[in-house]
């Protein structure tokens, strides 16, 4: 009997190996959602805006470092660096951060609601709380890309281009934690608020509109009323700017024309963030069975 | 307004670039007729044309001899149970059905509605608002709405959808009875063994074309390029039985597998007579004789594949 | 179809432990009793769940999945307590919901990989298994298309694929043939049968079409008003222990009736069929054969007589 032929039985196999736990599931959801929101696996058109916005977020850092690279290390270029202090970075790219958040947060949660994928997730893969956690992470990570990474990049660049790098690091020792904390505050705020507003609707256009309205309308009202009634504290209604002002307060030399202290902004930021978390809790955790 | 209940002549229907029906010709007689086809084959379009909800792009549709689009009075003789669409949710079931009766100008709409509710077994829930109803109950409301004016032509699109086994059995019995009363009932459904129970005849659509019309056995007989198969189980020397059967002229092939014989024949009637004789000669007892592939599901599958040029 | 006494759990040879054990489960929603003291042990590889609308089927399925915590009693699934370890249970079971909850903007492949990923499979394994299950359910080139572009049949198959990608030991299917055309129904039922016979995945299927259940399941469980009212093993072979038969005659039926009666058999007309009864099975079969020969008629169909699944259960379902 010759045996120079084989027939292979490609049977359907079972997988009985190790399975990862809750943490991995949350991380998996976060990674998957954020990549899709940024346009992964969805064609190049969807990727254009996030990529463009990211580039814009890096632009100030690129400009400053570019100039320093052109003109070499000198006290003149140190002055250029001082032109863009870390405290001002977020406000410089505030529009970009806002736009980025408005683009990705509805994408993270609205389709799941619209296609009823939520029920599929909850009945087979992930618990409600873990879902919210995963989506928070999914919002946070890309946002950090525009709130934290550019500023860190600027810092590193400044160190490298400094006349006395070691001295620079010593002088600006506190700036690194400040940069990190501000980046986190701003990212967490916009991410959570965006998720909360998007969780209220199944349709992305409504979420986008709602988010923009939330950010713009109170600010306008606050500004107009504040002037009319001569009540400068009404400017705290500028919810869009709250975390940025609060973050600025971390740095020395904070000044505000109408003397609204950074801790007031910090309070506003916390209040809105807590409200957003409450909305998320109600929308996702409150709907049992 | 008389004549055949439904008559399609050379009917085609297209929407833009989509062809839903292509040159379809058939008539529907009293009794229950099943309307079969894959998703997108043109079944809903056919029902819509019967009901007068749309006009053919080519050809003519006649319901009781008239064009349903042009002769509104014919609606009094038609009852429709559409696939989608729910009756007004805030009304009670009774109100919905009474409303339907009045729209169809039934003389005593209250008692007609009560009767219709009884027929579909909703008398107990008749005074609850429809929005509280489950899918199965809503289906029954739609059915009652369509029956209340005692139509001569009933058009039903997937009427058993969402009904549980008991409700299904009742609905099948009801439709069979309506057909026996002389009404014309056209039922579109995907669950073929249920269609087989209620319908005397079927219309089979594939890709907008009508590929078969008639009763299942009659259609089966016309499919001559497929041999008829019969499965036989016997106690005793099964191989001997196989030998005896092969001796006959009309047995084309015999397969023996796991103690069961699968016989291919060109003449099932002749085989049926040969079986007891062959069993006696082989000293076996026939335990099971089952024609294979003659049921509606097999016939439908065959027609569908044949339409693609792939007969199996 | 052989019937076991109500309540006796069905057993599978060679397999000891039940897949699902339900003990005295009660669940109320406000004033409505959804489940009332249900006790059952599901050991067969394919079990059908039958019941009228509102009988408690979906509540029971959700309780097995750990999505609903019973008021009293408990459910053990694959050895785990469904209420206490609901997260683990849900990850080890597969669930194909009745209504599509598939994300329209993803491709079938991406969704199935994602689901495998979320349920704990390592990435590479998730990709491999997604490829395999998509092939098993019959989605080939279509898998890289967006689910939005899928027909009903393709969506149902994707639905099934996501339910089995992570190698569950048990999958719960809720009306899997909903909306499918005859070809789609046929394919889906074949697939479901294969799950338990070839692919080693136990099945709990809820359906309104008795024929579908008879074709794919080894046992059925019937709920009514929240109570378990019947369990049956479905005997696929049929025949043993059955005595009477029904036949269809080609030729002169009356001649057959005469001959059969002369042989001492009882013959009754039932529509197109003749019901033949006798003292014992062999007598009946022999009598039928001999009467057919003597009367020179043909036997175009011969089956054991007896209640069909429908006759048996429709009363129980209510």
Radius of gyration of chain C: 24 Å
What is the string of SSEs of chain C from the N terminus onward? EEEHEEHEHHHEHEHEEEHEEHEH
Shape of chain C: globular
Number of helices of chain C: 10
Mean pLDDT of chain C, to the nearest integer, reads 86
> How much of the polypeptide of chain A forms β-strand, as a percent range?
under 5%
Count of structural domains of chain C: 2
DSSP strand count of chain A: 0
Low-confidence runs of chain C (pLDDT<50, min 5 residues)? 1-14
User: Quick one: how many beta strands of chain C?
Assistant: 14
Q: Structural class given helices, strands, pairing of chain A? A: mainly alpha
Oligomeric state of the chains present here? heterotrimer
Distance between the termini of chain A: 64 Å
Order of helix and strand elements from N to C terminus of chain A: HHHHHHHHHHHHH
Mean pLDDT of chain A: 86
**Helix proportion range of chain C:** 25-40%
What's the arrangement of strands in the largest beta sheet of chain C?
Answer: 6-7-8-3-9-10
CATH level 3 topology of the largest domain in chain C: Rossmann fold
The CATH class of the largest domain in chain C is: Alpha Beta
Largest sheet of chain C: 6 strands, mixed
Number of helices of chain A: 13
Give structural notes.
The complex is a heterotrimer of chains A (289), B (312) and C (318). With 289 residues, chain A is mostly helical. Chain A contains 13 helices and no strands. In chain A, helix 5 crosses helix 11 and helix 10 packs across helix 11 (204-228). The N and C termini of chain A lie far apart (64 Å). Chain B has 312 residues and is an alpha/beta fold. Helices cover 35% and strands 29% of the residues of chain B. Chain B contains 10 helices and 13 strands. Chain B is elongated and about 70 Å long. Chain C has 2 domains: 20-233, Rossmann fold (3-Layer(aba) Sandwich); 245-310. Chain C has a 6-stranded mixed β-sheet, sandwiched between helices. The longest helix of chain C is centred in the middle third of the chain and has 16 residues, at 182-197. Chain C is globular, with a radius of gyration of 24 Å. The two termini of chain C are 20 Å apart. Residues 1-14 of chain C have low confidence and may be disordered. Chains A and C meet through helix 1 and helix 6 of A and helix 2, strand 6, helix 3 and helix 4 of C.
């Amino acid at each position: 009997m010759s045996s120079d032929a084989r027939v292979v039985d490609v049977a359907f196999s079972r997988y009985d190996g190790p399975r990862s736990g809750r943490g991995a599931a949350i991380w998996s959801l976060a990674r998957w959602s954020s990549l899709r929101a940024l346009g992964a696996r969805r064609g190049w058109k969807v990727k254009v805006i996030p990529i463009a916005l990211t580039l814009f977020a890096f632009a100030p850092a690129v400009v400053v470092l570019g100039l320093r690279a052109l003109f070499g290390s000198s006290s003149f270029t140190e002055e250029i660096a001082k032109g863009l202090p870390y405290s001002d970075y977020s406000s410089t790219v505030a529009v970009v951060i806002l736009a980025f958040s408005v683009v990705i947060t509805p994408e993270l949660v609205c389709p799941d609601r619209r296609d009823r994928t939520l029920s599929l997730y909850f009945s087979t893969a992930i618990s409600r709380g873990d879902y919210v956690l995963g989506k928070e992470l999914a919002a946070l990570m890309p946002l950090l890309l525009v709130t934290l990474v550019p500023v860190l990049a600027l810092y590193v660049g400044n160190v490298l281009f400094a006349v006395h790098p070691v001295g620079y690091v010593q002088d600006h020792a506190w700036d690194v934690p400040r940069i990190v904390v501000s980046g986190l505050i701003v990212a967490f705020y916009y991410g959570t608020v965006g998720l909360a507003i998007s969780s209220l609707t199944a349709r992305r256009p409504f979420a986008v509109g709602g988010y923009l309205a939330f950010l713009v309308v109170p600010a306008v009202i606050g500004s107009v009323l504040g002037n009319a009634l001569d009540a400068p504290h009404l400017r705290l209604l500028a919810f869009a700017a709250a975390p940025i002002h609060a973050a600025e307060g971390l740095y020395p030399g904070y000044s505000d024309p109408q003397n609204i202290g950074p801790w007031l902004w910090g309070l506003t930021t916390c209040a809105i963030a807590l409200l957003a978390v409450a909305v998320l809790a109600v929308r996702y955790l409150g709907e049992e069975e | 307004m008389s004549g055949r209940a439904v008559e399609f002549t050379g009917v085609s229907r297209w929407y833009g670039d989509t062809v839903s029906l292509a040159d379809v010709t058939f008539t529907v007689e009293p009794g229950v007729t099943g309307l079969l086809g894959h998703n997108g084959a043109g079944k809903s379009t056919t029902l819509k044309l019967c009901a007068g909800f749309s006009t053919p792009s080519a050809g003519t549709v006649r319901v009781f001899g008239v064009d349903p689009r042009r002769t509104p009075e014919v609606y009094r003789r038609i009852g429709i149970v559409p696939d989608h669409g729910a009756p007004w949710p805030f009304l009670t079931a009774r109100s919905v059905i009474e409303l339907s009766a009045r729209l169809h100008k039934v003389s005593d709409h209250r008692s007609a509605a009560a009767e219709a509710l009884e027929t579909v077994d909703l008398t107990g829930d008749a005074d609850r608002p429809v929005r509280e109803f489950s899918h199965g109950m809503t289906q029954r409301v739609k059915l009652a709405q369509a029956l209340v004016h005692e139509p001569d032509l009933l058009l039903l699109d997937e009427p058993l959808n969402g009904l549980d086994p008991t409700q299904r059995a009742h609905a099948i019995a009801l439709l069979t009875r309506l057909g026996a009363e002389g009404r014309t009932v056209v039922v579109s459904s995907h669950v073929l063994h249920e269609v087989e129970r209620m319908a005397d005849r079927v219309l089979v659509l594939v890709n907008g074309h009508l590929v078969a019309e008639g009763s299942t056995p009659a259609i089966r007989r016309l499919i001559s390029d497929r041999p008829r198969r019969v499965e036989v189980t016997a106690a005793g020397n099964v191989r001997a039985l196989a030998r005896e059967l092969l001796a006959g002229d009309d047995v084309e092939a015999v397969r023996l597998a796991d103690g069961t014989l699968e016989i291919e024949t060109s003449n099932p009637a002749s085989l049926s007579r040969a079986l007891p004789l062959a069993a006696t000669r082989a000293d076996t007892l026939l335990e099971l004789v089952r024609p294979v592939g003659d049921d509606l599901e097999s016939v439908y599958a065959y027609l569908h594949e044949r339409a693609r040029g792939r007969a199996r | 179809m052989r019937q076991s006494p109500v309540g006796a759990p069905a057993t599978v040879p060679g397999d000891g432990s039940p897949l699902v054990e339900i003990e005295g489960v009660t669940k109320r929603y406000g004033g409505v009793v959804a489940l009332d003291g249900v006790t059952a042990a599901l050991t067969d590889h394919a079990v059908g769940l039958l019941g009228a609308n509102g009988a408690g089927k979906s509540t029971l399925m959700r309780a097995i999945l750990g999505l609903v915590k019973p008021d009293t009693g408990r459910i053990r699934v694959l050895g785990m307590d469904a209420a206490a370890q609901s997260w683990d249970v849900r990850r080890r079971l597969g669930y194909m919901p009745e209504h599509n909850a598939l994300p329209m903007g993803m491709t079938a492949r991406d969704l199935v990989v994602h689901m495998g990923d979320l349920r704990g499979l390592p990435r590479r394994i998730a990709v491999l298994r997604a490829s395999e299950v998509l092939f098993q359910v019959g989605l080939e080139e279509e898998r890289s298309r967006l689910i939005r572009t899928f027909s009903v049949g393709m969506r149902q198959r994707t639905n099934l694929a996501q339910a089995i990608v992570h190698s569950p030991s048990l999958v719960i299917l809720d009306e899997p043939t909903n909306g499918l055309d005859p070809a789609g129904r046929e394919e889906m039922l074949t697939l479901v049968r294969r799950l338990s016979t070839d692919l080693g995945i136990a099945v709990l299927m809820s359906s309104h079409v008795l024929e579908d259940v008879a074709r794919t399941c080894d046992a059925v469980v019937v709920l009514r008003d929240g109570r378990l009212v019947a369990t049956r093993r479905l005997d696929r072979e049929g025949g043993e222990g059955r005595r009477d038969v029904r036949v269809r005659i080609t030729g002169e039926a009356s001649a057959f009736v005469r001959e059969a009666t002369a042989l001492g058999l009882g013959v009754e007309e039932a529509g197109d069929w003749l019901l033949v009864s006798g003292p014992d099975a062999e007598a009946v079969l022999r009598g039928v054969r001999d009467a057919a020969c003597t009367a020179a008629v043909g036997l175009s169909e011969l089956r054991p007589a007896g209640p069909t699944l429908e006759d048996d259960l429709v009363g129980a379902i209510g």
